Amino acid sequence: MTIIDLLVGGYTATMGDAKGISLLRWHGDDARMELLETTPTSSPSFLASGPDGLVYATDEYGSGPAGRIEAFRRAEGSLHSLGGQPTSGGFPCHVSVTADRLFVSNYLDGSIDVFPLLSGGRIGELIQTLSAHGSGPNPAQERPHAHSTLVRGSTVLSADLGADRVHVHAIENGRLVRTASVTLPPGTGPRDLMRVAGRTILLGELDGTLFALDDSGQVLQAATITEDWVDGDHAAGLAIDASARFLYTGLRGSNRIAVIRAGDLSPVATVSSGGDFPRHLCVIDGDVLLAANQLSSTMAAFRIDPVTGIPHPLGSPVEVASPSFLLPVL
Fold this sequence. Notes:
Helix content is 0%, strand content 58%. By secondary structure, it is an all-beta fold. It has a domain at 132-224: Beta Barrel (Thrombin, subunit H). The strands form seven sheets. Strands 24, 25, 26, 27 and 28 form a five-stranded antiparallel β-sheet that branches. The protein has a four-stranded antiparallel β-sheet with strand order 3-2-1-29, with no helix packed on it. A four-stranded antiparallel β-sheet has the order 4-5-6-7, with no helix packed on it. β22 and β23 form a beta hairpin. The chain is globular and about 50 Å long.
């Protein structure tokens, strides 16, 4: 019997109905999801694992004009708070973790924060903020909007949804040095970054484009995620199957999941996400795709066809308040 635990981040307070970080258990024998407990905390919209049972969560709502980044430790099946730090900007929506640093993306003003990690996994005071400038043609691009980072050895890429740029940084003495900025087509809305088979894959939220990038951030290939993109859709959440043959992303608006071949980035199909506003996806148990449908407060499960890569619904969606991120507990 396969049992997999997942931590689920969500929106609380004025941004949703979640109460904090939920611990769910997947029972693979009968495709059943069980809610075990919820750790109260404010709007943990993005979660990331650290070593030795550490978990880091962005508090996208925060207090005042800025948000927060919080640390937790898993022990005896529960999360225990280690405290956190305020971020320099509002709506922190992503964090990358290294052995001694956290890189936090602040959506509101496009800035990237660097925090040191102290002994025991606690978060030290902010040591650096990289600001941004620029805008794009889409109404959602009125200013820079940092959305994610990807760490590759001593290089850090960051996606700026508002300015249609991918910034390239070197890590030098624990700080970031911006070495280049790659400009993408207007209205792309760079959102998510993922390493796949030696290439970096970038998801464009606003126009449904996928890009393959080299290690310097330069574009090697561009492709569309679906042949029937719906005007007003917002793509979100890259996931890859266990065989690394198929990519998946949610289409918020038309409420679909797009299936893409990882090798040549060609579209395969789209299927219903089983709910409203699929914000994040993940693959567990080898061939099970989970979709966090934020606005319907549900999580849907699918079995991935090993030949076509197309996901097929498993049972009925389960209720999870305002889910925004799924993190399997390893």
